[in-house]
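Predict structure. Chain length: 309.
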Amino acid sequence: MQNNISCRIGIDLGGTKIEGVAIDFDGTEIMRHRIDTPVVGLADRYDSIVNSIDELVRFIESAIGISGTVGVGIPGTLSGSTGRIKNANTTELIGRTFDKDLEKAIGRPIKLANDANCFALSEAVDGAGEGSASVFGVIIGTGTGGGIVIDGKVITGLNGIAGEWGHNPLPWPKASETPGPDCYCGLNGCIETYLSGPGLKASYQRLTDHSIEPVEIVELFDSGDSKARTVIEGYVNRLARGLASIINVLDPEVIVLGGGLSNIDYLYESVPDQWMDYVFSDDCFTTLKKAVHGDSGGVRGAAWLWSER
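Prediction complete.
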């Protein structure tokens, strides 16, 4: 760890906002601040993102009067072969040496990780997975990300894609689910096309010919609307199938849900009931939990990148 460092700073780069947090060495939050992500279509958006993160770090350190290590969570990952960003839905990052450019701007070493890995690390360290040896963290929101933490350490994998369950095909597909919706990755029927917020919205539109936002679908479900119930029940079954495939491979102690759709309370009882139809075991002790830190999981996890056990 660097000299003259008194805290950990985490940065979470999102599509619409960049959030920063400073925590002390026991995880207590010192300060939090958000700024807007430079808008899509901006000619120099990449440079603007780098500068915005630099300015956010400097603002936080100026406000609290101390310096920190810097960890950054991004919607993508570093390629082991090129050292450049790949698989980023903030497409301006793709092919860029983002970590090196940030280090040059900020003037110190940084640690960079996929935002779902940051989320999983946060929940494993002092969240819903605290005390568990194996945690699979799931983000179900704009996309469908995943991260694996074993014994307090993020597992990135040889190719930097460990935990990317959202770009596997939906398991045990029904006839109506094949070949499946187009995915931005170039394939069809990926888990993300069904279990993300846009995926839930598309499912409702296919059933009703009406387009409403996921939060409205959930409100209709809570009020007893039959069509919303059909859509949410379908979502539960797909999530159960998706997570059962993870349990069959990874067999984690805890699966933690984050992202906007993790706020559907109905999931936490119904999904484990249904995943038993697909888990290759006579019983399943894996628990499904809601994230303790909510939307803060990613940014806290970015800060914790400097303290993995």
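Summary: The chain has nine helices and twelve strands.
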